[in-house]
Each structure stands twice: as C-alpha cells, then as structure tokens.
Amino acid sequence: YIKKDDPEVLHDLRVRARRKLSILEKESKTDLGLKKLLKKSSKLRDTDVLLEICKSKKVKKYLKKKHKKLREKFIEFLKNFESKVVPLDNKRKDFDCKSLFYTSFIGKDDETLHKIRILVKKCRYTNPQLENKLKKIQDFLGKAHDYYNCEKLLLKFKKNPKKAIKKKLKYIRKAENIRLTLLN
C-alpha cells in the first residue's frame, strides 16, 4: 500500500487484520498494533468507498482532498508499524453468533446495523462452517453502511440523498433475506 494507492490492497490489509484479531480474541489475546492499524485506516477506507458510490462532483472533490491527507498520515503510521500481542484483561470471549440469526435487520438504525455487522465479521472469522452466508450478510450490511455514509455527506453538501437511501434499504433487505435462510 505504501508503494501504490490501491483501495483493494488497503481492504485486504484490513480484512487480514480483523481476521487475526478475531482469532486472537477467542484466545483471550489482542494485537495492539493491528487494532491501531484498523483505527488509523478506517476513515481512509471510507473515503475510498465513498469516492466510488457518491456521484456528486462537490462531494468527490471534497473526498479526494480528504483521501490525500489521510493517506499521507496512514503511510507514516505503516512505516513505523509494530505488532504487539497482549493478553486481554477479561477471559476468553465467545461471540453470540446464534443471536444474529434471530435478530431482524429491518427497522434498525444505522449505528445498530453497524454494530451487528462487526459481530457478523467476528462470527464469520471464527466459524468457518458459516463463512459463505455470513460473508454475504457482512457485505450487504457493509454496502448499506456505505450508502448511509454517502447519505450523510450528501446532506452535508445540501444534495438530495434519495438514491443513497433507496440503495441502503435495498442492501438491508438483501442481508435480511440471507439471515432468514440461516433459520432454516
């Protein structure tokens, strides 16, 4: 990523970090360096995604400036990156993956859906037998969250967010349909 500004490389880096953290958490450990990497790269990843989905020229111009600044800061972080695995203060953490199957995504606010998506990721990375279905739910809830962020940006620039809202709801329904198949 240092050599080439490629959104897919950043995405892959973040996925690998999350997967490793989920596995470590089941062992009552964490990696402080990876946690920091995810935090430092989060807004950068968001700008990559929003540049793809938000169509407003004003918004894109704003995002390009923001992306440049965030990338410079992240590259500095990467140059000094250090992994540090430490024990968690609490005991081994089991994720309540089954509760995911019984919680409808319809009618939930955007922040709650984002929290559910984080749990879906942890369950996905630690339950290989559910990998495919949970990946689909994760992807659909992720797209819904992306359109929620686009909606907020459009409102900030006094643009109509109707299309973003419509797409957000479409992806929530898709995630819900996959969730329902897990109940059978």
For the CA atoms, what is the radius of gyration?
Answer: 18 Å
Content of β-strand:
under 5%
Going across the major beta sheet, what is the strand order? 1-2
Rounded mean pLDDT is 92
Q: Spans of 5+ residues with little confidence (pLDDT < 50)?
A: none
What's the β-strand tally?
Answer: 2
**Given the C-alpha coordinates, what overall shape results?**
flat
The helix content, as a percent range, equals: over 70%
The N- and C-terminal alpha carbons lie at a distance of 42 Å
Continuous helix count:
7
Class computed from helices, strands and strand pairing: mainly alpha
Run of helices and strands = HEHHEHHHH
Largest sheet: 2 strands, antiparallel
What can you see in these coordinates?
The relative contact order is 0.13. The model has no long low-confidence stretch (mean pLDDT 92). The N and C termini lie far apart (42 Å). The protein has a two-stranded antiparallel ribbon. Helix 2 runs antiparallel to helix 3 and helix 2 crosses helix 6. 73% of the residues lie in helices and 3% in strands. The chain is built from seven helices and two strands; from the N terminus they run H-E-H-H-E-H-H-H-H. With 184 residues, it is mainly alpha-helical. The protein has helices spanning 7-26, 32-53, 57-79, 97-101, 110-126, 131-156, 162-183, and strands spanning 29-31, 85-87.
